């Protein structure tokens, strides 16, 4: 009974997320729940601070039409993303709108040091931008092998982390309810909740930064695998690459397309004065032909991996999150062209290979989406319910 009640409350909350201001009778039609059940769930969700009533609809005939909507003013969801060189923190409302975000270099790779820095950054954001709001909790995302159930970073080779109890570290320094997951899975949650409606059918998320990994979902299930190791694509072999990899082999996807590799190649070619990825990206975005060519060659290799994932998993859509897709003209087209050329399954790469729904806020959204997903999955019986 408890599980059924939770699932029904989740269905009500998700309909309001999708539809915006909506009448209880419409919620009943959308969910298939009885009018009495919807009334009960709405009352409970209002009591817990997730929903609020809006003014009556003018001109309504008969019983007043009093719509309900998400209360986006009461709570704030904290998000943190841990990258190889930077930390990104942000505050989001219940609709996933980024209220504020901040990206800074981290003070060092030590997990406890990074946890303390995240806590300090979040304190500053909460005091400066949301002093009247109640934080529901903190979602944290990072690359590598992350076991969300235990809140542990099993392995993150580029940070040198193994068996790091990230959830416990962040809980201790923030005092918040903390959820942790890999950033590709987190972004799937974000897309399914807030972004691409087609992602609710089936989706692959391919993340290419310094870390390269993937995640996939079908129906209501985001696949984790034993100890959440699903989506490890860093060491897929790609054509035309002899780039050495930390695994001891050469030609691995991550080693070939990582941001560090791009920066090094651009520096060696004299395209930038220092091997800094953001400098290469800026150079390409402002029209440097050498830098553009470098990114298009990289996009072609990313397309190889995307085509393979498409044929193995046959998703409704495949989402590529890469800064060059956002900032360098033609990179997404190059990836699509490669998928169209190589894939046996993908019939229309223009429709089926897409960019992230969160340009410019991807990392803050990824972190917060771990917590938002927990909220929308179980709004009554998680620790979140105690925040009100």
Query: Helical region count?
Result: 14
Terminal CA distance: 23 Å
- Average pLDDT confidence is 92
Low-confidence stretches: none
Counting helices, strands and paired strands, the structural category is alpha/beta
* Number of strand elements: 15
**Oligomeric state of the chains in view:** single chain
Strand content: 15-25%
Please describe the topology of this protein.
Layout: H1 2-19, H2 24-31, H3 35-47, E1 51-53, E2 68-70, E3 75-82, E4 86-92, E5 98-105, H4 111-129, E6 134-142, E7 145-147, E8 152-156, E9 161-164, H5 166-174, E10 178-182, H6 183-194, E11 202-208, E12 212-218, E13 221-222, H7 253-257, H8 259-268, H9 277-285, H10 289-313, E14 317-321, H11 323-327, H12 331-342, H13 349-352, E15 353-355, H14 362-377
Parallel strand pairs: 3-6, 6-10, 11-14, 14-15
Antiparallel strand pairs: 1-2, 3-4, 4-5, 7-8, 8-9, 11-12, 12-13
Helix pairs in contact: 1-2, 1-3, 2-3, 4-5, 6-14, 8-9, 9-10, 10-12
């Amino acid at each position: 009974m408890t599980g059924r009640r939770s699932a029904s409350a989740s269905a009500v909350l998700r309909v309001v997320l999708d539809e915006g201001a909506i009448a209880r009778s419409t919620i009943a039609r959308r969910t298939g729940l009885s009018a009495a059940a919807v009334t009960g769930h709405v009352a409970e969700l209002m009591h817990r601070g997730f929903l609020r009533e809006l003014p009556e609809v003018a001109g309504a005939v008969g019983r007043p039409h009093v719509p309900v909507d998400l209360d986006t003013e009461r709570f704030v969801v904290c998000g943190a993303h841990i990258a190889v060189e930077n930390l990104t923190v942000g505050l989001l409302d219940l609709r996933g709108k980024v209220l504020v975000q901040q990206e800074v270099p981290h003070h060092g790779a030590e997990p406890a040091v990074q946890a303390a820095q995240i806590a300090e950054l979040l304190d500053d954001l909460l005091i400066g931008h949301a002093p009247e709001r109640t934080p529901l909790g903190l979602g944290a995302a990072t690359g590598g092998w992350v076991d969300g159930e235990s809140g542990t970073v099993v392995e993150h080779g580029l940070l040198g982390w193994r068996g790091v109890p990230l959830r416990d570290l962040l809980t201790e320094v923030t005092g918040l309810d903390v959820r942790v997951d890999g950033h590709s899975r987190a972004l799937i949650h974000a897309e399914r909740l807030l972004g691409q409606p087609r992602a609710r059918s089936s989706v692959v998320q391919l993340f290419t930064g310094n870390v390269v990994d993937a995640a996939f979902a079908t129906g209501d299930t985001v696949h984790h695998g034993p100890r959440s190791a699903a989506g490890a694509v860093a060491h897929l072999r790609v054509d035309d690459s002899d780039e050495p990899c930390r695994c001891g082999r050469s030609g691995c996807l991550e080693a070939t397309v990582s941001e560090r590799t791009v920066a090094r190649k651009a520096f060696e070619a004299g395209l930038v004065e220092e091997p800094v990825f953001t400098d290469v990206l800026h150079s390409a975005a402002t029209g440097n032909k050498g830098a553009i060519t470098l990114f298009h060659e990289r996009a072609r290799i990313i397309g190889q991996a995307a085509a393979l994932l498409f044929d193995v998993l046959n998703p409704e859509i495949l989402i590529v999150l890469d800064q060059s897709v956002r900032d360098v003209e033609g990179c997404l087209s190059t990836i699509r062209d490669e998928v169209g050329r190589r894939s046996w399954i993908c019939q229309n790469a223009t429709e089926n290979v897409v960019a992230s729904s969160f340009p410019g806020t991807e990392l803050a959204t990824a972190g917060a989406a771990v917590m938002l997903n927990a909220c929308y999955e179980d709004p009554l019986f998680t620790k979140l319910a105690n925040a009100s």
